Amino acid sequence: MRLRHYGKPPARRRDWMTIGTLLPYLWEFRARVLIALGLLAAAKVANVSIPLVLKEIVDALDRPRVALVLPVSLLLAYGALRLGNTLFGELRDVVFAKVTHRSIRRVALKVFEHLHLLSLRFHLERQMGGMSRDIERGTAGIRFLLNFMLFNILPTILEIAFVAVILLVKYDPWFCLITVLTLIAYVVFTLMITEWRMIFRRTMNEMDSKANTRAVDSLLNYETVKYFGNEAYEARRYDDNLQSWEKVAVRNQISLSVLNAGQGFIIAVGVTVLMLLASRGVVQGTMTLGDVVLVNAFLLQLYMPLHFLGFVYREIRHSLADMERMFGLLEHPTDVRDRPDAGELVVTRGQIRFEHVDFAYDPNRQILHDVDFEIPAGRKVAVVGTSGAGKSTLARLLFRFYDVTAGRILIDGRDIRDVTQKSLRAAIGIVPQDTVLFNDNIYYNIAYGRPDATRAEIVRAAGHAHIHHFIESLPDGYDTLVGERGLKLSGGEKQRVAIARTMLKNPRILAFDEATSALDSKSEKAIQAALKEIAAHHTTLVIAHRLSTIIDADQILVMEHGKIVERGTHRELLGRGGVYAHMWRLQQEEEEHRQLKAVGNGLTEGNL
């Protein structure tokens, strides 16, 4: 997938921008966030209080046997604090669960909607496997960031502050100083090594996306792979990406071990020095055995979150890197946008006019040159020409998959750029040359033309498209699954499904982009009769390869190299003896040759 980099700001600024993107979703549930933070603080107060109560219990038990009394109240308080710490933590998770999952849902939906707003240009260039993996990792990153940033980093900092204050107030300042210095050394070391490791994670993500893209692309083109016997070739290409991922993954693991060993060394030094100070205090009589237990308990309580803090920080940085790629999709500009004052298109007559239209997919390669023609309301205009002449581009421009480079396209005298895309596309029905179906059943794919249609209307549309009897002959009928991209159906069957759903939509304007190219002669004649019937009451643009299918067109446009070189009726164009007449003769000769070959094959089989 090609993502633009937009002259990216420094990594640290990008991280804050990514975090800032989530703030509106948190603000929606600000009451829940505040309650969760309150429960978090209560849990940490209970956790820090446990060593204090434990010290009192140890001191109460560390007395001569004659003076020993069971500290029942302290033991009950110890149990209550343990329970409170767990209970407050679980309540916090319950309160915050809706915030996390609603945020993920909203962001995922926003990305999904934005991808549908992007132009056809973007979707022709994107790689589906890598993009889907980026979205998957990005949503997982949101979950991790919200939970661990709020409920691990913040409480750990809060707990460290509580412990530092207790050590400073109750004991020698060296206890507090050594604890703070140990934490500073730990954090600085973690930040430095983690930043160094980030390059490995980013590279791993890229290699992972490339490998996934390669796998998805190969599996989607399963038949092509089989046709050319390239299974081993595809496996090698996939393994090349996995090999690159493996090298980076090994380096990532080595750097992780370096980080963990360094963190362990820093903590070990801090713990050893503090225990030496506490032990010396007991020997000198300035500290009790309970004080040693207290210091040790605090150290253990800080050691675990500190060790986890390193992991959390690493994962947050990784999550931010993952989210950055997903949010990069949201930053991708939409080439075709509704104007702020765009109104609804109300088709009254259905007249279409291409007015001196120029168009280029790329500035260095212009496709259309001063294309100018009109389709009167209720009439049929056909466009023919050689491959690459720009015929299909006309349908894409009419549907506003792209905006014209120069000139304009009018429907009932209104520039299509002045109306909403939704209302424009609701008024046009198109049967494309390359029909792609959803991986669902036939009923769903036909109903997609108008999802609220009744079953009777769907069956009627299938009948008009001459596919109803075929569907009924299938074991599962309309519930038959069509497979990925409709590969379980033949090209002609897929095209008839596409025709049926366009008939079901019943728009005022129709566009057929070589709609019968995948049909046999018998089916084509039947479909042509149906298309002629519905086109009689619609404004119709027909893009055709077979000239025999557009003889009845009110006007035929002949295109070459993005220009209209001839126009007229079938009879008029034949009379001129130009490009159209030459194309007609060639196709007639091909048809005669095909018929003679069919007759010859029939005679051969009869003799056999």
From TrEMBL:
The chain crosses the membrane at residues 33-54, 66-84, 144-168, 174-194, 254-278, 298-316. It comes from the Bacteria. GO terms for molecular function: ABC-type transporter activity; ATP binding; ATP hydrolysis activity. The keyword Hydrolase does not apply. It is a multi-pass membrane protein. Residues 352-586 form the ABC transporter domain. Keywords: ATP-binding, Membrane, Nucleotide-binding, Transmembrane, Transmembrane helix, Transport. This is Metal ABC transporter permease. The keyword Membrane applies. GO terms for biological process: intracellular iron ion homeostasis. It is found in: Cell membrane. It comes from Candidatus Muproteobacteria bacterium RIFCSPHIGHO2_01_FULL_65_16. InterPro entries: AAA+_ATPase, ABC1_TM_dom, ABC1_TM_sf, ABC_transporter-like_ATP-bd, ABC_transporter-like_CS, P-loop_NTPase, Type_1_exporter. Residues 34-318 form the ABC transmembrane type-1 domain. GO terms for cellular component: plasma membrane.
